[in-house]
Amino acid sequence: GLALIWFPYTTVSWERCRIFGVLQRIAIVYFFAALSYVHLGTRARALLAAVLLAGYWAAMMLVPVPGFPSGDLTAEGNVAAHLDHLILGAHIWRYAPGPGDPEGLLSTVPAIVSALAGLFVGDWLRSARRARRKVSGLILFGALVTAAGLFLDRWFPINKNLWSPPYVLLSSGLAMICLAAIFVVDVAKRDRWALPFAIFGTNSILAYVGSGVMARLTTVIRWADGGGGTTTLQKWLYSHWFAPHLPAYWSSLAWALAYVAIWLAILRWLYRR
Questions:
Q1: pTM given for the model
Q2: pLDDT tens for residues 149-159?
Q3: How far is CA 70 from CA 63, 117, 121, 243, in A?
């Protein structure tokens, strides 16, 4: 995670370089989820999930930030962002939606519950129940959890950057429903159309890191454009291969699809081996 964020290193402002990120959050969340799976039973993990969500809810809604009322969820006034500033200082995400880090310290707590939800689903799918019951159970649980997230939104908004408890419920519920659909495809052996998704899923972290490095390289590689300025490899490729042939909206889409296709080809070579 740090290697990806800091790449290519020579352009890093070490006084303000970000420390947390997506891969760092995955590492922390998996660490605690694995510990809970090894040392706790199903009921204890369910209790842990409830405590983590309730504790985060209480911290965000009851603990005031200096200069702001308790329960303030703005980018400047929420407790998670304030804690990131106190502990991480300037080493946080510096762009929209605000001064907090979307993968910061406190908001990692409810993210652990997202992984715990995955453990519950994994146990359900590995059980001795018949396939039809597994699918119907996933759909039922997913619908109930999704409805709970939508219902609780009125008291704590669904917000991905804060990883709010309703967001945990909504995203987990929708994931269960989607997984049920995928499970039907697997059981029915009608999955040839889904091979590109399987290829990306098999090497998902490599795809995430590699595509990020490649994207960064296309903006780092640059040369003089002859008019006193510079142009990047990304800008040159886009302006010569895409923009002249399509309207702006479609050329942007074509660029994105071409990038996905490049990585599908790379990952397919690995998948076959």
A1: 0.88
A2: 999 999 999 99
A3: 5, 29, 35, 49
Task: Pick the closest to residue 219 from 202, 204, 237, 206 (CA basis).
Answer: 237
pLDDT digit string (tens) for 212-260?
Answer: 999 999 998 999 987 788 999 999 999 999 999 999 999 999 999 999 9
9: left (phi over 0), alpha (psi -120 to 50) or beta: left
Q: Decide: residue 231, CB within 10 A, 0-12 exposed, 13-18 middle, 19+ buried.
A: middle
Count CB neighbours of 112 within 10 A. 24
pLDDT digits (tens, 9 = 90+) for 109-128: 999 999 999 999 999 999 99
Residues whose CB falls within 8 Å of the CB of residue 19, separated by 6 or more in sequence, listed in order: 2, 88, 91, 92
Mean residue pLDDT across the chain: 93
Q: How confident is the model at residue 179 (pLDDT cuts 50, 70, 90)?
A: very high
Residue type, 47: L
What is the distance between the alpha carbons of residues 159 and 70, in angstroms, rounded to a whole number?
Answer: 18
Residue for token pair 């499970």: 183
Task: Give the residue from 109, 69, 97, 65 showing the smallest Cα distance to 83.
Answer: 65
**H helices within the chain, ranges in order?**
2-6, 22-39, 42-62, 79-88, 108-126, 131-152, 165-188, 195-202, 204-220, 233-237, 248-271
What six digits make up the tokens of 268? 């397919």
Scan for tokens 């002249």, then name that residue: 244
Please, which pLDDT band fits residue 97 given cuts at 50, 70 and 90? Answer: low
CB-based contact 208:260 (threshold 8 Å): no
Backbone angle region of 26, left / alpha / beta, with phi > 0 → left and psi within -120 to 50 → alpha: alpha
Cα gap 250→253, rounded to integer Å: 5
